[in-house]
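Below is how a single chain appears once it has passed through the pipeline. First comes the sequence as given, then the structure the pipeline wrote out for it. We keep one example in the README because the format questions we get most often are answered faster by looking than by reading.
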Amino acid sequence: MWAPDPARTALLGHRSFAVDRPGHGFDAQYPAAYQAPQDLEAWAAEPSTLVGVTLQDNVDIVVDIVRQAVEHGPVVLVGASLGGTTITGVGNTVPDLEPTRLHLRTEGVERAARRIAEEQQRMATLYAELGKAAERLKRAEDDLAATQTELSALD
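Resulting structure:
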């Protein structure tokens, strides 16, 4: 996921360092049942390779790196998903590192915002259609009442 980012940041004149958190990146472990040929039943029965890895483990690893990196200048942390949660924890753990700036990668947030906007538009359209249907129903009720009045007058 992050492979292109160090090159992009370097081209902008910044140093970058991608942190592999426990069980991710080069540290990722895959059970034998996951490998080819896959044994899905055995794989389903195996405990996760991330059993015992906590959010605090992730935070601690990144905090150690931030403490080293901040000696060389400002640090900008970027994270998505669990990485976003991790860097929030890092910011809470080392707020004293004034040069450190924290940023979350927002693709997921932007995608969710787009979906919410689309859903709001869809709901607005449905409410407008419902309003028009209610007006038609009211007119039909009024017409029915008028017809009933006319019929009653004929009796």
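Helices lie at 4-11, 40-45, 55-69, 82-93, 107-154.

See the next section for the split statistics.
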